[in-house]
Every structure is written in structure tokens, then in C-alpha cells.
Amino acid sequence: MVDSPRDPAHRAPGTPRWVIALGIAAVILVLLVVIVMFAGGGEHGPGRHAAPTEVGMHGQMTMP
Amino acid sequence: MALTPGLRKFALAVHLTCSVGWLGTVVAYLTLDLTVATSQDPEAVRAAWIAMGLVTSWAIVPFAISSLVTGLVMSLGTKWGLFRHWWVLISLLLTAFATVVLLSEAGVIGRLAGVAADPATSSDTLLDLPHTLPHSVGGLLVLVVVQVLNVYKPQGLTPYGWRKQREQRGLSAS
To answer: Distances from the Cα of A46 to the Cαs of A50, B34, B91, B106, B113, in angstroms?
Structure first.
């Protein structure tokens, strides 16, 4: 029997459906997060966690 | 670099402990995070933030790094390999992603815990300290997905895994 490249045994299996479904779910989740972030103001750096009053290097409060 | 059966069981026990431990400590962190998000009591918020700092530094980060390292050991030391099966590859990517995000957030958490621990911090400032719910909920979701993949091990060889399998079959047939 000729072992030809057209033989299905030669072809790598396609990506499983559960991987595709997981990938789609991840993309949808990321898009939702991005939309919520932009709707909420947009910042996603460490500054978003800054306390409203300025804080010095060692956690000491500096009043404005 | 196949592990002996005894070593494999030991490595699996350590990996499971670290992985489930990571998940458990994130749940504990989440309950504190919810307190920060919902409480109107500044002292409760102070206590929650101090605890969040301690849980992150002494439990979550060590478990996360251990889980990632032991997962690598398990993959490389068993038939599963690192890139041959889709469930292993996706678990690795998600675990690495979660660890990177955790390590980048750990500094922020430590700083805010420091603010909360400072006796000079006013009640208003304590109540204005932000929560980290998007990260704690998102992190928990990622860990649950990894846990499910590791238990169910859904079938599927990557193209690399399929090539390796063919090579091995070719070698054993010759």
C-alpha cells in the first residue's frame, strides 16, 4: 500500500473543538473586560490602585 | 527524563498540594477583598487589607510559583510532555499568565497593605482604599479552568505531539 501525503494518516489532527470553544470564550471575556475598563475610565496601570491621598515611599501619609 | 513511579507519585502529590493550595488561598483572599469592597467599617477594611498583604506574600505567591514549577516537572518527567497535549499546553499557558499577573500585582497589594497598617491613615482614606476584585475573581476563574483541565484531561494532540507520536511509532515499528 502506498503511503501517500494525501493519506489521512499523514495529516496532523485538527484543533479539537473544546480548544476552539475555550479560545472563543477567552476572547469574549477579554473583550468584555476591555469594554468595562474603557467604560469605567480606562486606566489599568498601578496608579489605579493609588489611595486618593498622596502616599510617600514608606507608606506614610503626606497631606495635600 | 522519565520519573520513576515512586518519584512521579511524590511529584504529583506536591503538585496537587501546591495547585489546590493556590486555589484555596485565592478564595481566602477573595473573602477579604469582598470585605474591602463592601464594608463601611474602616477598622474592618484596615484588618482586611493587612490580611490580604500577608496572605498574598506568604501563601498565594509561594503556592503559585511552586505550582508552576512542579507542573513543569510533572510534564517533563511523564509521558504527557509539555507541548504534546492541548490540555497540558493550555494549563501551562494559563498558569504562567496567572503567575505573571499575580507577581505584578503583589507589589501593589503590599503597598496598600502598608498604607492600611499605618496607624496614621485616616478612616476616610481606609474606606477609599480600592479593592482588587477584578483580579481576584479573574484569577480564581483561571485557576478553576486549569483545575478542570487537569482532572478531565480532554483529548487532543497538538501538531507537535502528533509528529512525536508518529516518530515514536516509526521507531518502534523498525
So the answer is: 7, 20, 27, 11, 14
3-state DSSP assignment of residue A11: coil
Q: How far is CA B107 from CA B1, B52, B73, in A?
A: 37, 12, 28
Q: How confident is the model at residue A1 (pLDDT cuts 50, 70, 90)?
A: very low
B40 CA to chain A: closest CA distance, Å?
A: 16
Give the pLDDT confidence of B130-170 residue by residue, as tens digits. Answer: 999 999 999 999 999 999 999 999 999 999 999 998 888 88
Residue in B62, B66, B89 with CA at minimum distance from that of residue B157: B89
ipTM (interface predicted TM): 0.80
Which is it for the CA torsion A30, A32, A35, A39, positive or negative?
A: negative
Residue B99, C-alpha cell as written in the block: 503567575
Q: Is the dihedral of CA B155, B159, B160, B166 positive or negative?
A: positive
| Among candidates B111, B112, B162 on the partner chain, residue whose Cβ is nearest the Cβ of A12 | B162
